[in-house]
Amino acid sequence: MLSEGVWTYAVIGGEAAEHSFGRLRGVAGEPVRAVTGSGLTAAVGTVRLDEFGEEALRRHLEDLDWLAATARVHDAVISEIARGGAVVPMRMATVFLDDARVRGLLAARHDDFVSALDRVTARQELGVKAYADPKALTGECGSGEHQSGEKLSGTAYLMRRRRALASQDDAFRIAAAHADRIHAGLLKHAVAGKRKPASDRRLTGRDGWTVLNGTYLVDEGRVDVFRAAVATIDRNTPGIELEITGPWPPYSFAGDVVGL
Amino acid sequence: MTLTPRDDFSPVQQASGSSLSGPQSTNLGDILERVLDTGIVIAGDIRVNLLDIELLTIKLRLVVASLETAKEAGIDWWENDPWLTGKSSQLELENERLRERIEELENGNGRRRAIKGQATEYEDAE
After folding, report:
1. Burial of residue B99, with CB atoms counted within 10 A of its CB: 0-12 exposed, 13-18 middle, 19 or more buried
2. Alpha helices of chain B — where are they, by DSSP H?
3. Using CA atoms, how far apart are residues A71 and B32, in angstroms rounded to an integer?
């Protein structure tokens, strides 16, 4: 009966020495090691199946604390490996039964990994989010608001509510237009870019609307230009606040060439 | 503008297991949307369909579609606006106010005053 599995973090080019990942520790606190084959290296860790097996994973993934901690470590390992060169990140919770199965993967998907590595070599992924302040966008200042209710007739109340909705609608249109323009502007400085759905507010911890959740693959030599472009847009767009994250390992782009 | 450097990684912290309580400047949502949705899809031997995980799909991932998609899909994005949350209580309040106005008007008693009063309130409201 198997009690251990092989958690995979990333695939890199070349066949690395088994202990080339130094002191890196993985999701189970295990040392990260190399499995090599077909001219590629998978960064993996041995994990217990009673915590990382099918049933346990299904249970754990519902546990936000476990999920958060595991996601952070998975990301941290990949990020650290990415500092040394191009990586193809593996999706969290990709677990094999043994090293032979990982070698099988490297052989079977060799061409896909090579294409993906080519795509992301000497490039970084940067995230850019735009938050909109609806009031600032419509030039409406909150000071004219009545205290809720008293002495306001039903009709006046309805009119006020209609005005508020109309102005929200205006703000929405303005914000959406800004988001399109910002995304198009940033694409000029990037190899590729994608718009992702906005994160839940409970995760962003922000009050404003997330009108753009973009992520961009940028040539290393153009990262400063890209960051400067973000700063300029941020300065020149009242009511919109930009936030830049990264550099990330190329999570959002490594799969582009594979067509999956 | 908020710059968020990814400085929350240290192999030493990792080894001691304290990375979980260490500085976490990187937003969890940003990490999750990437590590769970990373572009290259490999089927491991341990099959866990992430889409089956209720917490992930319902509570974390794609909870709010992008604004334009939401609009196209007819989602009332402003339902989340603080001003309009507790929708039912707002409606109740509204109904109550309307009922009061109708009663006042139907009452005949002080009818002129009511109409005049309404006009005045209009001006206040503008």
Report:
1. exposed
2. 11-16, 28-35, 54, 67-72, 87-106, 111-125
3. 6
Mark yes or no for CB contact B38/A97 under 8 Å. no
Residues linked to residue A216 through DSSP beta bridges, in sequence order: A126, A193
The interface predicted TM-score (ipTM) is 0.82
Lookup: tokens for A123: 């490039």
* Spatial distance between the Cα atoms of A40 and A110, rounded to a whole number of angstroms: 8
Residues B25-57: pLDDT tens digits? 577 778 888 888 776 778 888 877 766 666 554
DSSP B36: S
pLDDT digits (tens, 9 = 90+) for B62-81: 433 344 444 443 333 333 43
Token digits for A213?
């959740």
Upstream peptide bond of A247 is cis (omega within 30 degrees of 0): yes
Residues of A in contact with B37 (CB under 8 A): 91, 251-252
- Out of B14, B50, B54, whose CB is closest to A73? B14
Give the CA count within 13 Å in the CB-facing half-sphere of B1: 20
- Interface contact A22-B11, CB threshold 8 A: yes
Residue A161 amino acid letter: R
- Inspect the interface and report whether the beta carbons of B46 and A231 lie closer than 8 Å: no
Residues 6+ apart with CB under 8 A from A2: A49, A97
Cβ of B54 and A179 within 8 Å? no
In this prediction, residue A58 carries a pLDDT of: 85
